[in-house]
Amino acid sequence: MKRAFRFAARCLLLLLLGAALLAPAAQADVGPKPSVSIRVVNAPAGELYLDLLTQGAPSTHPYPNSDAQRCDPAALDRLRALEGEGWVLAYTTGVENRPPVFGSVIPDEGGIWRFSYVGLPDTFRIAAATRDEAQVAETSYTRRFTDNIVYDWQSNSVRPATPYPLYFTIQLLSTLIPTLLIEGVVLWLFGFREKRSWTVFLAVNVLTQAGLHLVCGSLLLTSGSHPLFYILTLIFPELIIWIAEAAVFALLIREYAPRRRCGAALCANLASYALGYFPLHLLLPLLERL
Q1: Is 90 in contact with 78 (CB distance < 8 Å)?
Q2: In angstroms, what CA-CA distances link 123 with 36, 52, 120, 149?
Q3: What is the b/e burial string over 171-203, where b = at least 16 CB atoms within 10 angstroms of the residue's CB?
Q4: pLDDT (tens digit, 9 = 90+) per residue, 201-213?
Q5: Which of 27, 31, 223, 252 is deepest in the core (most CB within 10 A)?
Q6: What angle (nearest 5°) sits at the alpha carbon of residue 147, between those of residues 143 and 152?
Q7: Secondary structure class of 125 (helix, strand, coil)
Q8: Are 126 and 151 in contact (CB under 8 A)?
């Protein structure tokens, strides 16, 4: 048991060392921010402006981040005309008593509209306009923490860029595979060899990782942007996972004494917690495109 605690202490030290090496200088406004990227298909001819229509009162002191000076006034007026009945353009007008939204009504060089920051509404409708016409999506869309969506101008509908079953599967595999590899090495070092032990190990990790993604959603992936956010996001879920896995190991695995099984669960989870940031950090640019 003493060897198990020494191994756990080494893993914790490695985690703290990695955080110290990767952490940038402290700033007043750091941390992952909610964001949404929007691609328009079947777009009309001409320049298209796009914003997020959300419920609230229009801001009496708009944040000075608008790019109105770059826009066609006629098209921008059509976009603003979509406001009313409690619906406000989150970026162009802003919502009273809410933080601002950063972005642009004009797409970037890749033809994508991007909006972000803490004022980004959780639920919104797509509002789009040209010089000649304007329309609002028929249904509201509730975003993930980081989301990529597609707006079809012709059908006036919104959908996720990646269907949810595929998105969830890729997201799950991005943490499940590194977890199985890291914890599998620890389990092997503890001397577990029986098929039953490895079956229990595989089943409990699939279930706990699936539960982790269901609870944290895309915030789990975003935690890979910085070691400090990774630590804070996962410390309590990992504690719950360790308790669950230790109980399952103690009840269902037959090799060795229950104390050794719980010790193996503790060390395996500490190792995957300490080292899991690195593959998640490397995969983050790919996962954010889903």
Answers
A1: no
A2: 11, 9, 9, 13
A3: bbebbbebbbebbbebbeebebeeeebeebbee
A4: 999 999 999 999 9
A5: 223
A6: 85
A7: strand
A8: yes
